[in-house]
Specification:
alpha+beta; 6-stranded mixed barrel; elongated
């Protein structure tokens, strides 16, 4: 009996299975993506006591995930709730390493403080973790690095030469198998670096994790850190500025201390020193995938209630021979459950088939082996069964036996209102996807076409060995030699590289005023090299000795943050936190240009020559080369040949083009655009197929009326319009209801961007026209066929 019912309603059954399969497949893929993002650092047995440190500045309305060395050091001394801390920086560094067995270039290194293994208890397979990072010459290496350098893993006590410095391997460790963002191939403790920074309170260069004692409330630490560290230090700075501590904090911050649990930083940290996830996007995708499942459930309800005319007599007969309402409801629920389970198993197969492409899109290695995915998707199936089965079951089983046997059931207004209401909801969701997709496309297009304030085309950045004893002299030699290569247009250096995650910041003081700003060392010609526009003043001049001693070039945002005019800025002498020993003067002001993503406002930044501070001279580690456009590939090969043969033999030629690097900051939004387009197509497909099936069933019920009207002389055009008019009104109402909802939600999404489009009107108009046109096109197909009915068949009993 069940198979005959399904066969009789084959069209609606196929559409229900198809829609639910699409919805469940999207739901499972997004759920796996979410679970994978949430699984980072779960391997760490100490994760419940370890927190990532962040601060919030009210004046700048921004979060920072960095800390100065004396702040972390004093927190351990003054706050009893702190058990330990670890600092690290220089993630992803690379070095050429030489042993008595092999020489190899090893990447993905990390500079970290002594307590690293206390926080991240990697399995030690040689040596010991306790004193592994005790001295400046200690090095801990991964199992893979040990095999590369020594051909074996039991190498504790062996010597490794990095440049001209000898290190002793103190530990060999295995990286954890679980998802982790902290997976260094080697770890070195820069003891001298920490020692030199012990008085640099305003040099926020380190990422920090705190380990709290068992049972400590993180908010207790946050309050004490603010009171005992931030406010104490602010009192010193405020006194120098001639204002109160509270005024200083209100003006410059930080105002709040935040701690994020270790296993939550990937998705939930306000600011992360590691590669941050995007929880809002994951949540949006998950909600959209659930909406597609809801659309499938709506199709179910609509089609089942529309089938009332075909099943009304069946209900009447079964009630007449003693069938109860509960038995009828159980049957209808069973039918729905079988269709849902068929969709569920098909979606499992489809998910497995799509998973390789999905992994490639998100750069992941997810496998369909998480029991949570099976459980949650099965729960979703059961919910759909109840939602899609109970409403039609309740509606159909409520028919009165006498009326259904007489054929009067189809006149019930309740069924009509139910179908129309659910169809309106379905078209509202479709309208939201159309409007949202168009706005996302417009924002991404706007970002891609916006003037960035610099030109990174044909500029390649080459990293070189940063362990050179005098890296600035090496840079100057490389600059001289590379400039001679045919096809090279210019050579320069700048710390502030577009698209790079590297960032240096410090407080800069002027009399009683202080701001926190980014800073960058550079060569004389760097800003001209990047085609940045000069607004006031002059560029750095190699013929002026002062330009390697105390001269600054700042951007517009820097001047605005101090509240100066351009003329006032050029008359100022400043005290920068990155060089406490002397005053600097502003000699030029450049137009703002984007170094990060367009999601963020251009931040204040100060530029100076790399020779002005010792720390920046020694931190110089890259060179930028502008190649002529006529033979880019040939020039790159020439530079590579020189690099590998003369500049740094034994080191890999590592480079990227600046404009391509910056373009990667758009990848997240381009992926959002792609996913929204795919989901949009899925939603429209499910909705329109459901609309087609529903209109087919409803028009089928009106064929006798069509035959009568046609006999009375109604034209095909009038008949088609009459049959589609109801659906067009529903589409109009759905769009009008969706407009304020879409406006609010998309405006909230756009608020995340510092550079954004104004909310456009045309997506709402396009959505209205497209949905109306698609509704008419889908319904009119069946309506036109209805006008070709066999009049004799429907009128012979009248």
């Amino acid at each position: 009996m069940l198979s005959s019912i399904i066969k009789k309603n084959a069209l609606s059954t196929i559409i229900n299975i198809f829609g639910l399969t699409i919805g469940l497949t999207g739901f499972m893929l997004i759920l796996m993506h979410w679970n994978d993002e949430e699984s980072y650092e779960k391997w760490n047995p100490k994760k419940d006591d370890i927190y990532a440190f962040q601060t919030y500045s009210k004046a700048e309305n921004s979060y920072r995930s960095s800390i100065s060395y004396p702040m972390a050091f004093n927190a351990l001394k003054k706050i009893p709730e702190v058990q330990d801390y670890v600092l690290f920086f220089g993630t992803g560094i690379g070095n050429k390493m030489t042993t008595k067995y092999h020489t190899a270039f090893q990447q993905d290194g990390l500079l970290a403080s002594e307590s690293f293994f206390h926080f991240f208890p990697f399995k030690i397979i040689s040596g010991g973790a306790k004193d592994a990072l005790k001295t400046e010459t200690s090095i801990a290496i991964s199992k893979q690095t040990a095999i590369r350098l020594f051909g074996k893993t039991n190498v504790a006590g062996e010597s490794v030469k990095i440049e001209n410095k000898d290190y002793i391997v103190t530990a060999v460790y295995e990286l954890p198998e679980g998802n982790t963002q902290i997976k260094p191939e080697f770890i070195i403790n820069p003891v001298e670096q920490f020692r030199s920074d012990r008085d640099h309170w305003n040099d926020y260069r380190y990422a920090c994790f705190f380990m709290l004692k068992k049972g400590v409330d993180p908010s207790v630490f946050s309050e004490k850190f603010k009171r005992d560290i931030i406010e104490v230090r602010a009192a010193v700075d405020a006194k120098d500025s001639g204002i109160s501590t509270q005024q200083f904090l209100e003006k410059y911050g930080p105002n709040t201390v935040l701690l994020t649990p270790l296993d939550k930083i990937k998705l939930h940290a306000k600011s992360s020193p590691l590669a941050a996830g995007d929880f809002k996007t994951v949540l949006i995708l998950f909600i959209l995938s659930v909406l597609i499942v809801v659309l499938s459930a709506i199709n179910f309800i609509n089609l089942k209630t529309a089938e009332a005319s075909q099943r009304g007599k069946e209900v009447g007969v079964r009630k007449a021979i003693g069938g109860t309402r509960s038995s009828l409801m159980r049957q209808f629920l069973l039918e729905t459950f079988i269709i849902c389970m068929v969709s569920y198993f098909i979606s499992l197969v489809l998910t497995e088939l799509l998973l390789p492409s999905f992994n490639k899109f998100f750069d992941k290695e997810i496998k369909l082996n998480d029991w949570h995915v099976f459980l949650y998707s099965l729960i979703m199936v059961l919910l759909v069964t109840l939602l899609s089965g109970l409403i039609p079951a309740f509606y159909l089983s409520s028919f009165k036996a006498i009326e259904t046997l007489k054929g009067n059931f189809s006149r019930s207004k309740h069924g009509i209102w139910l179908r129309n209401g659910i169809l309106t909801l379905q078209l509202m969701i479709s309208s939201f996807f159309i409007i949202g997709g168009l706005i996302v496309n417009s924002q991404v297009k706007y970002m891609m076409n916006k003037d960035l304030g610099f030109n990174g085309k044909q500029i390649m950045l080459i990293t070189f060995n940063e362990n050179d004893p005098k890296p600035w002299l090496k840079y100057e030699r490389l600059k001289s030699e590379i400039s001679k290569i045919d096809g090279v247009e210019a050579v320069s250096f700048g710390d502030a590289v577009a698209g790079s995650s590297r960032k240096k910041s410090a407080n800069i003081d002027y009399m009683q005023e202080t701001i926190n700003t980014n800073y960058s060392s550079m060569d004389y010609n760097y800003l001209q090299f990047m085609e940045v526009k000069l607004l006031k003043g002059r560029w750095l001049n190699p013929n002026l000795a002062s330009d390697t001693i105390n001269s600054l070039i700042v951007n517009e945002a820097f001047v605005k943050k101090f509240g100066w005019t351009d003329e006032e800025a050029l008359a100022r002498n400043l005290n920068p936190g990155f060089d406490d020993n002397k005053k600097y003067r502003i000699v030029g002001i450049v137009k703002d240009f984007n170094l990060k993503s367009l999601k963020f406002k251009v931040e204040p930044i100060a530029f100076f020559h790399y020779k002005e501070t010792a720390a920046n001279r020694y931190a110089l580690q890259s060179i930028q080369v502008k190649v002529k456009p006529d033979d880019i590939e040939g020039t790159v090969n020439k530079v590579k040949k020189y690099w590998e043969n003369s500049a740094e033999p034994g080191y890999p030629f590592q480079y990227y083009f600046v404009n391509q690097k910056f373009a990667k900051t758009f990848v997240q939004y381009q992926k959002q655009q792609t996913l929204f387009t795919i989901l949009n197509a899925m939603v429209l497909m499910v909705a329109l197929l459901g609309l087609f099936a529903l209109s087919s069933l409803m028009i089928e019920q009106k064929l006798k009326e069509v035959a009568i009207r046609k006999t009375l002389g109604a034209s095909d055009r009038i008949l088609v319009f009459g049959l589609t008019r109801q659906f067009l009104w529903i589409a109009i109402i759905a769009v009008l209801i969706s407009v304020p909802i879409c406006y609010y939600l998309m405006n909230e999404w756009l608020k995340d961007f510092a550079y954004r489009i104004d909310m456009p009107l045309w997506p709402f108009i396009v959505s209205f026209c497209v949905l109306l046109a698609l509704t008419f096109a889908v319904v009119s197909i069946k309506a036109y066929k209805a006008t070709k009915v066999n009049l004799v068949k429907y009128l012979k009993y009248e």
